[in-house]
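User: Round two. Same drill as before: sequence, then structure, for each protein.

Assistant: Same drill it is. First protein:
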Amino acid sequence: MTEVVEPRAVNSDYAVSLLEQLKFFYEQKLLTDVVLLVEDSEFPCHKMVLATCSSYFRAMFMSGLSESKQTHVHLRNVDPVTLQIIITYAYTGNLAITDSTVEPLYETACFLQVEDVLLQCRDYLVKKINAENCVRMLSFGDLFSCSELKQSAKRMVEHKFPLVYRQDAFLQLSHELLIDILSSDNLNVEKEETVREAAMLWLEYNMEARSQHLSSVLSQIRIDALSEVTQRAWFQGLPPNDKSVVVQGLYKSMPKFFKPRLGMTKEEMLIFMEALSETQSEAIVMSNLIPTTVVCYSPQAEKVYKLCNPPGNLQKVGTVVTPDNDIFIAGGQIPLNNSITNYGKSGKLQAVFHSVNSFFWFDAQQNEWAPKTPMLCARIKPSLVYCDGCIYAIGGDNVSGELNKRTVERYDCEKDDWTMVSPLPFAWNWSTSVVANDCIYVMTHDLMYCYFPRADTWVEMAMRKTSRCFASAGAFGDLIFYIGGLHVVSNSGIRLPTSTLDGSSVTVEIYDINKNEWRSAANIPAKRYSDPCVRAVVLLNSLCIFMRETHMNERAKYAIYQYDVELDRWFLRQPVSERVLWDLGRDFRCAVGKLYPSCLAESTWKPPTYLFSPDGAEEFEVDGELVSLPQYNS
């Protein structure tokens, strides 16, 4: 009878020890049986190790041909430094990838067919794609038939098209790649004139060699999307001998009704992080495990769309939208192994969380979050701002110790890395940050400090007249607005809503950057005010606030108010119907970005229609009785 042997787990200690011994034999040149010759360098190695990681060497050493018996192998068109990195990986499993080595490393790994190195280099390159290198990455991915790299780079080229089409790398694109880009529906352009200019620049870069492509390139332009003035001026400027051919080709290929490019469809929207839907409120109280919901509201269309939720049930993140309309989230917390603990005397179930240093970029075309290099510190609800070409992560609720809470780090968008900068002067809770005139202003209570990036220095600015926390801040021109929040009564330590002290309005103070002084401004004439649900935003080139006008135990009603600088007056710009936008809760964050409705799912996030009467009245008749709209408790 055959004895059944139970499988046992692999002894990881033995595996590590084996690698260490192989590395020792390589370094001491013990039992080596082949020498790789590259230029003037020699690399004594073991055939077994090389064949294990490389299909190229496996085929060479196991073919049975004369090459398999060679003791010296010449490798041409291989860089010795790059080969050393691959050999080190073969013996240790450690791969050292940097910005300067990743491309030659990928080329060599492709030649030697080292699959693991190829995959790691590919992932590194995909993660590092930005506006500066995306065109080059597109050509690189095409050259080495790396579809993942090519697709990711193409999406970035489409997204950053207005910034990249003048780059030398774009002007040197192959004809095939250029056609692939110009024909794309996903170009982020607001006018077809941008595509036309890109096509002409590419042709004129080497007109003699590229004249054969004149018709095929220009036929990608959607003529009926151009203005009549542009069309007339353009055709008059074409070379006489090519004009008839080009015009014929253009109009022959012209669609009857052109499809707008993706950039022509984008709308400026309010983006709400960590909002609650009507079905989530009770559940989140019970477990705190409801995934973070991200929705956006288009004031023009009065529609709500849903963004992809952050990965891993990530909550309490910092959010920033750059001037180039890139959306980033950073930090936050995630449930620990999806565990739930019966917590406290109330017996309510609470999830156990731990803070993270994650950092993600939102791919608007794919409606998904792409990971970028994590922050240096784990932070819950850090203040994120974009200033002078970089993103700054300031403070955070979770960073333990006063010194750590003061930390500030800077993200270089081109290099995809973080560095520490000068810390905050004090450890603050409830602070808010804005950027104005290439400087960062951090405010809390009655204090404000300004950070000068070029000098890496914090400077104390004028104090406010009131001491408030949990306020919202926004910058508009040379003015900074500090809106709402809770008044701090110094003697008692009590925090009172601004509406409690100011009746039915919301307190507003304005800081004049040029004068370095604060002044009181017109309050916001809100009907009711549930603090701290006030968010300052710049919407359609105007300073606005999005606010909740009801208490938290009432059915949610929201409104957008706009500030008139000349009249020092707030007016109701747009009420937000509860039929469109349901309850956001109280912890949501708000940002403004331009998004593509066609890439988003229109949210069904609204109360049932049977709750509302046709004429919009607060009360209506049901089965012969007068019924009020239900109250909503969040």
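Second protein:
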Amino acid sequence: MTVGITYREDSPQIVFAVERLVEALREIGENAEMVGKEQLLTAGGIWIEESGLEAAKLFGELSGELQPEGFRIISAQREGRPLLVVAALDEAGAMYGTLELAERLRGCGSLSEVQECVMNARFPFRAIKFNLPWSTYRRNESFRLQIETIRDLGFWQRFLDRMAENRYNALTLWNLHPFPYMFRTANFPLATPFSDEELAEWKRYWTALFRMAKDRGIETYLVNWNIFVSESFREHYDGEAISDDTFYHYGDSYSTEQIKQYTRESITQLINEYPDLTGFGISLGERMNDMTPEDRQEWIKEVYFEGIREADRPVKFIHRAPFSVDPSVTRDAIESSDVFEGPVWVEVKFNWSHAYSSPKLLLTHGGSNGMEGYWNPPPRNYKITWMVRNEDFFTLRWAQPDFIREHIAENGQEYVGGYFVGSECFIPGKDYSHREGSPHVSWTYAFEKHWLYYMLWGRLLYDPSTPDRVFENELDRRYGSPTGNQLLKAYSAVCKMPMALASFYKFTWDFTLYAEGFLSTGEDEFNNGQAFISLQDMLGRETFDPSYLSIRNYMNRVLQGESLEGYTTPVQLAERLEADAQRGLSLITGLSIKSPTLECELCDIEAWAHLSLYFADKLRAGVSYERFLRTGDESERRKALSWLKAPHAAGHWDNLIRVTQSHYHEQPLLHLGATPFSWERMRPMVQDDIAFVESQSSAGSRV
């Protein structure tokens, strides 16, 4: 059977979605052809209508139920044949509606079985945070090895395709100083180190990237770190040149009138030379340690705001909330400005660098107090956008849809415009963790391996009511029915581990927690690669979530006879972790492995389960050891040893090594500096816990 389709052929966004729709039709045994609207309305088919006006004449007014980027799928009959209409108010809505229709066709297998629906975007800003591997904020081999991949437009085509399919609508590209890679300024030509030929190649790259994004309904933003200039600028225009070793993101202000002029002119030139670039963003506070809040904001106004004002067109703006500033200074500057197009997106780090801790907002960047001043009273011309930073798992796949839904429900107030999803320490380009040549590898890029992670966040940010069945269907499509239901439930159970660890083990900045490695560098960078969370670390650390009790606070309450009501105790947390791990393992036991890639997914689920079991038994060991210290009861020390040894904690870690060695090798990890990471490398530290408890005696107890 041939299905007629009518759509606007001059819309790149709709054309992109129709290509996916045609693929879906082919999968269910249907061919597709372009037909005129009149023929389609007579004989049935698929009509994609992005203005909403014509569909409204036939099917009723749409403006009352649809919002920007929203859509309605209508099912009707013409001469006994189905007519499916995707009605929207804009091209983005038509694109998303067409993608939804393709998905529904794959699920039901027939045009006549497609169910009607209305969907609107929950948030207007649904962004990926993507750190570029050049002029980097962080420095590590894990960034250097990504340069070739991220310079390849083939990578970006696939990445942007996946973004659009998952309903993301903003790509934010971050590095210290982007301008030398994009153009040569008239007044500071030597600030750019590239030849004319090299610069022309860079310009082709950026122009194509921004256009590809626009063709998929994705806005693009460049975000930098304020008072930074290139090495070439320092060499040719600054008499007090600073070496790269000292010119880094953290430090006192580095500003001259020439730097202000160069940055201001660069902003203007950037906007004028790249018309498909949507906007720009700044990180107020970096390289400004010695400046007052007022001086910092004045520098931004004098340089960035004025550079935007001088441009030929308005742009959108991302303003990171300063982490050590009175909110009134920044919000006054934004609310009194008239240089921006649309609302300003004010970015706030959710629970600092570890959003996978709690859906409750307990901490912001720098541990700032008073951040609520950004949203109370409600802002007039900006929206808060939560930065969901992931510095906690880069290798193991993660999927926990209920955490995302709870996060959105808890933090989706009227003043919130949306979310950023991404990492400072991981670029999802080249996959450098998996063993080369493995039959597991059916993907080219890391983001394709982590496809479910990106799908969950994107689809739920667009519509938090999206049911688990949507994700289960995609798992079924990849691995065969009825795999999806068990797989998603297994992931959902074992992937609670990083949130449990982050709620229990207090953290601050990026490297103070890396959940999948059970690592924390403390407050000192890298710590010579010795970052494993020891039993002593757990005993001495407070909890992040105040509703959790640390081991010592728990023991205080137990020994003093105080109530435990309303708290999650270490014992309860251990029981919950073990139950989740066992549930996850039971769900994947007996699953028919129909592909090597499915085997890879099952290995990741098993790895999370062993991490959960290890954490659970280490908590139990900590409770017993702390009781020994308080009471001198030697039997409690023996219990602690039992929990730490195989088959308990040490056995679980050995199982973790076994399952991860089957498909992963040592890899660079920013948290450890030059020291590579693997779970096997941490085994001596697992044994150190045992040796520590064995070396203690009642003579050293805290009775």
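The two ends are 82 Å apart (CA to CA).

User: Perfect.
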